[in-house]
Amino acid sequence: MDTIKGMKRTCYAGSLRLDDIGREVVLMGWVQKKRNLGGLVFVDLRDRGGIAQIVFDNDVSKSAFEKAEKLGSEYVIAIRGKVFERQSKNSNIPTGDIEVFAEEIRVLNESQTPPIYIKDDDEVGEALRLKYRYLDLRKPKMQKNLMLRAKVANVVRNYLTDNDFCEIETPFLIKPTPEGARDYLVPSRVNPGKFYALPQSPQLYKQLLMVSGMDRYFQIVKCFRDEDLRADRQPEFTQIDCEMSFVDENDVMEIMEGMLKKIFKEVLDRDIVTPFPRMTFAQAMDKYGSDKPDTRYGLEFVNISDVVKNCGFKVFAECAKEGYSVRGINVVGEADTFTRKAITHLEDHAKTYKAKGLAWMKITDEGVTSPIAKFFSEEELTNIQNAMGAKTGDLLLFVADKDSVVYDSLGQVRIAVADKLNLADPDKFNLLWVTEFPVFEEDEENGRFIAKHHPFTSPMEEDIDKLEGDDKLKLRARAYDIVLNGYEIGGGSIRISDAKVQEKMFRALGLSDEEANNKFGYLLEAFKFGTPPHGGLAFGLDRLVMLLAGAENIREVIAFPKNQNAVCTMTNAPTEAESNQLEELSIRVSLEDKE
Amino acid sequence: MDTIKGMKRTCYAGSLRLDDIGREVVLMGWVQKKRNLGGLVFVDLRDRGGIAQIVFDNDVSKSAFEKAEKLGSEYVIAIRGKVFERQSKNSNIPTGDIEVFAEEIRVLNESQTPPIYIKDDDEVGEALRLKYRYLDLRKPKMQKNLMLRAKVANVVRNYLTDNDFCEIETPFLIKPTPEGARDYLVPSRVNPGKFYALPQSPQLYKQLLMVSGMDRYFQIVKCFRDEDLRADRQPEFTQIDCEMSFVDENDVMEIMEGMLKKIFKEVLDRDIVTPFPRMTFAQAMDKYGSDKPDTRYGLEFVNISDVVKNCGFKVFAECAKEGYSVRGINVVGEADTFTRKAITHLEDHAKTYKAKGLAWMKITDEGVTSPIAKFFSEEELTNIQNAMGAKTGDLLLFVADKDSVVYDSLGQVRIAVADKLNLADPDKFNLLWVTEFPVFEEDEENGRFIAKHHPFTSPMEEDIDKLEGDDKLKLRARAYDIVLNGYEIGGGSIRISDAKVQEKMFRALGLSDEEANNKFGYLLEAFKFGTPPHGGLAFGLDRLVMLLAGAENIREVIAFPKNQNAVCTMTNAPTEAESNQLEELSIRVSLEDKE
């Protein structure tokens, strides 16, 4: 094998253009393709910048030509040569106007035949891609994703730094807090029998930084949750984490809108309009059945409970009581698109979200076609059509149930209809704030209240009295989520900064004062020494980058992700530990408990 | 308590200058000090930007005046007022030319008397500072340190990004590699009985990124080592981690010199000269007895083994054999500074580094004064003086022993002498490359070779044959450390990129092929598919920032450090875990093994 001694790369292969003609260049990269044609050897040399065609001509250099003839796929080479205009141009690649006639070649390393092809449209399964991730990452699309991710992080950092935010690193080995998601634990060797946790977020540290007067903090930081994995979850994920003092909701939202505007401009060259629309949680549920609605298309819910409260169709009429509703969506002009079979398919979908059924009506020239039409009077049908704004050719879909079931199931039907009709324009980026979230949700299993965001979220001022009353579910939070095309990409709140309110919050969550003190005593203590009003927000970087890259799942924008069993198949992590390691940590594996 | 509703901070208190006179400002921060004087209330308001004097005058606003009278230390306030020129200026603070007459004040939060004073020269012990870190971080110096740290990180990121480096996040939950330092382990719940490790560095991932063609990678990233803590060690620490493909040592050093030049310019406004001096490991040991010499002062070693090989002083003469030496330093003109007692003190210091003694000679007008002078002939004494470049008034100090003991003990004596004489100019930044490190060190305890840097470091080309020979300790590595004022602030190497050489390296380290495969099989596999020549470097950010900040230990530049027992006394981490958590993780605490 040759060395690069005395050779220095002049530029990326993919950067060469007509302007470079006549230039002497040194390129280094991988053999994408080699072919012999008309007594010449043509090599596509690939590097991070793209691909350029290299030509080896026996008349230019006999030794280079002979070496080039022996090249295989993915060999690593360095070439020195001159840029020429191509005879037959290739408009499919950016360097298609030129080619480089090589005067020298060095073979820096050889390659066995790789187990996956190095091209974007290779259809190999994800298991193989993850096992050979270092080859998968040679694909131009994956490299583009990683570079886009780096660019987003860089834009974010510079924007926040320019706005007086100070990046501060918070610890990774912290105190376990058995609240919210499951912690990853780390046994301490020096303190036998004790454990650190990996942070689920830097929440408490960033609040303490506000107590310390650091005033505007940010961090792009790994966080950890030991949850069962879904398609878009990873055991470790990255947050853009921000916190500010002396602010209210509007200040936080304004600065974050500026950040997103900057990201879209610098990364995608797209202008997005600020301020973003805002919607309360109640409005979002009422209109879309979701706190993260995709607003690229309509299909908004209409609540017809009042219209049908006395109708002859019992299923509908009974849902006029409190906490229940009948809601519908009007799929304008698509009555003919949805066959009975297609509607049954939607109904099945609704049922997986606990709906008992999906009622439908088609508005035809002959009137309403529907299996349930017979239960309604003509007037009732007309009233329904009016309420739904329905005209001939429209399809109406209804769910009647508890509000929570209606939201869930009809919300999913809405998404499925939009998918079928391709209503979600992939080129559109709809950003939206959702505000006034409930402070509490009911944990029905354990019969208690849990914090919808987290226990440090401040209730709205006008609701704060309810913290000790019976109306807890109506308590609204000074919390806000930012939604992009149906994904929650970030969320935050104004925090509690009064030790007394914080204590009440812990009590409302069912923590005794002693428990609260054991877990969060240092925060309550800190709050006694002059805590400024403060609030912040955290973005999920993985998901944001996924959406910016137009990728289908977050593993496409993470260099070395885990699979759905939290395993890295490339390195085979996790593995058994050596017994002396465990002994030093004062722990033992105890499998029998589980089996 | 008041809210900030309708109020928006206009600027930091510390930013106000004469130019601002007449300006209406809104400031928010903490009460540093309050005093009543001549019917007025004066408040020093402190925020991240500094301190400004606020004046409350009953005639300007009665209600504000009355509220101000009740303020206590560390209360959080917002004030609206107008900037005036001060009558009696205070040249000790940047805002000393102005004061703000307050028209409105809001008390945003109260404070109990804090357990530590919020001022730089508070002499409270570190234990209390760490327990109340959120108060300790209110000190201007600590805030300055954190801001300096953020600035360093920002300069680094922008420099590397401008130079085509792509920031890529590598995983935190990785495969344990029981080599080098001790891993922190993380039990996997989903894979019972198996463990992840927290990374000691992203070494293998960054090399795999080079295999993937990402070509120029960097990351500012937390790393973890479960070692017993020293003054300048933390369980988690931050690395500036870089790797490049298609480069040799000079390329890496050049780009890193540019980075340091930029840091010093932008952070300290200091011009440092590049390229930095270079010294081989052998030269550094020979001259300073250290691979991280402080070159701000001389006191260089002189090897007088040849001069004394036949002298009458047995201790010296016997050290002429191979692997032993007699080395001295000349403390020019300081013979009178060092009393017998001071020299005894130095000797004791030398003995803690295994020296049997510290020989000394003072050159006086009457000749050589020394307890060992009698063992030498006049000619021998003259020869020694000549070799040492000694003149009247100089003090000569010698250690005779195995080279390794001479290096260690005389190196420490050199530092102690420099400390006593204040030779290390705190305003001087001496950067230095140390190169050609040995590949192996002997692990005398276990009778085997271990890698001085790590097993992925490439041997020098001309030495590569020794990898399989008996002369392993003479094998030099393509490794380089960067040294600043006696601290190693970074280190790196050109890596092995040939699977066969890597296999030989593992064998040389005593790993069987099976062990090597179990631990590093994926790397050996990756190397078969076209690995480019590559190398890199990692800086210790904590230590670099410590030196730039002129701080005494790294805890001064870390927001929330652990103490020497790896405990966070603020939060009380680590703690006992709940038994159901451990059960889910299939582990048990087993303390009896240790006690």
From TrEMBL, chains A, B:
Could you say which enzyme class this protein belongs to? ligase
Domain Aminoacyl-transfer RNA synthetases class-II family profile intervals: 146-561
Q: Write the Enzyme Commission number(s) for this entry.
A: 6.1.1.12
Q: Tell me yes or no: is Aminoacyl-tRNA synthetase among this UniProt entry's keywords.
A: yes
UniProt KW keywords? Aminoacyl-tRNA synthetase, ATP-binding, Cytoplasm, Ligase, Nucleotide-binding, Protein biosynthesis
Q: Known InterPro entries for this protein?
A: Aa-tRNA-synt_II, aa-tRNA-synth_II, aa-tRNA-synth_II/BPL/LPL, Asp-tRNA-ligase_1, Asp-tRNA-ligase_1_N, Asp/Asn-tRNA-synth_IIb, AspRS_core, GAD-like_sf
| Listed GO biological process terms | aspartyl-tRNA aminoacylation
Q: Note whether Aminoacyl-tRNA synthetase occurs among the keywords.
A: yes
Q: Name the residues that bind L-aspartate.
A: 179, 225, 453, 495
- Segments of this protein annotated with the region Aspartate: 203-206
Its primary localisation, in coarse terms, equals cytoplasm
What superkingdom heads the lineage?
Answer: Bacteria
Which of this chain's residues are annotated to bind ATP?
225-227, 234, 488, 540-543
| Entry's Gene Ontology molecular function annotations | aspartate-tRNA ligase activity; ATP binding; catalytic activity, acting on a protein; nucleic acid binding; transferase activity
Q: Which reaction does it catalyse?
A: tRNA(Asp) + L-aspartate + ATP = L-aspartyl-tRNA(Asp) + AMP + diphosphate
Q: Which GO terms describe its cellular component?
A: cytoplasm
Tell me where it resides.
Cytoplasm
The job of this chain, per UniProt, is described as: Catalyzes the attachment of L-aspartate to tRNA(Asp) in a two-step reaction: L-aspartate is first activated by ATP to form Asp-AMP and then transferred to the acceptor end of tRNA(Asp).
Spell out the subunit comment.
Homodimer.
Q: Which family does it belong to?
A: Belongs to the class-II aminoacyl-tRNA synthetase family. Type 1 subfamily.
Q: What is the protein's name according to its record?
A: Aspartate--tRNA ligase
Query: What organism is recorded for this protein?
Result: Peptostreptococcus porci
